[in-house]
Amino acid sequence: MKWIPLAMAFASTSLFAETEKEDSRSSFVLQFEDTQSEPRWQAVNDGVMGGLSEGKGVMEDGILHFTGVLSLENNGGFASVRTNDLQSDFSGADGIALKVKGDGRTYQLRLATNAPRISYQAEFETREGEWIEVQVPFSEMKPSWRGRMLSGPELDRSKVTQLGILLGDKKPGSFALEVDWLETYLTSGDS
Predict the structure, then answer these.
(1) Burial class (CB in 10 A: 0-12, 13-18, 19+), 6
(2) pLDDT digits (tens, 9 = 90+) for 76-126
(3) CB 70, CB 51: distance < 8 Å
(4) How far apart are CA 77 and CA 105, in angstroms?
(5) Cβ(173)–Cβ(20) under 8 Å?
(6) Which residues contact 47 (CB under 8 A, 6 or more apart)?
(7) What's the N-to-C CA distance of the chain in angstroms?
(8) pLDDT band per the 50, 70, 90 thresholds, residue 169
(9) Beta bridge partners of 167
């Protein structure tokens, strides 16, 4: 199966490389450039509920570095980075693709909407020390609220207000994930 990048509509387009595709659509790729127009990434760790995990996101040379230490102490167990104040419409896409270099752990890609305020999550695996491209289909994203899984509603792709990456695999210790780029994709019927 082949995938075709689609437009990823953030409020500011200056952080994207725009390329014309054969099918006349433009592709916008988030490349983690450290500019004033770049969405800010903030760490949100289990300290918000008393945990001791530490995680942070740093952009350097076009790479997002998500690193830290996961702790299960004090009922903790997650570290994350996320954007703020996105107004994105992914309604024409089937999922999000990422180029990542990880540590062999399983991470979550998370999207949030404000209608209502719910997070949607799906896991992706990494290979230790190796750059790979992963795809996260929107159809696999499950709704949750404050860590509790919900039965609905379905993700409204036209109202994405936040994007994040989370580690919560219940394995204490250090972690490191690098993200080179992120883009929406459309699954083609061609193989």
Answers:
(1) buried
(2) 999 999 987 788 889 889 999 999 999 999 999 999 988 677 899 999 999
(3) no
(4) 14
(5) no
(6) 53, 76
(7) 4
(8) very high
(9) 79
pLDDT at 64 over 50: yes
pTM: 0.83
d(CA 137, CA 95): 4
CA distances from 87 to 2, 10, 27, 122 (A): 28, 6, 17, 20
Cα Dmax for the chain = 53
Question: CA-CA distance, 86 to 9, in Å (whole number)?
Answer: 9
pLDDT band at 37 (very low <50, low <70, confident <90, very high): low
Length of the chain (residues)? 191
Query: 26 - beta bridge partners?
Result: 20
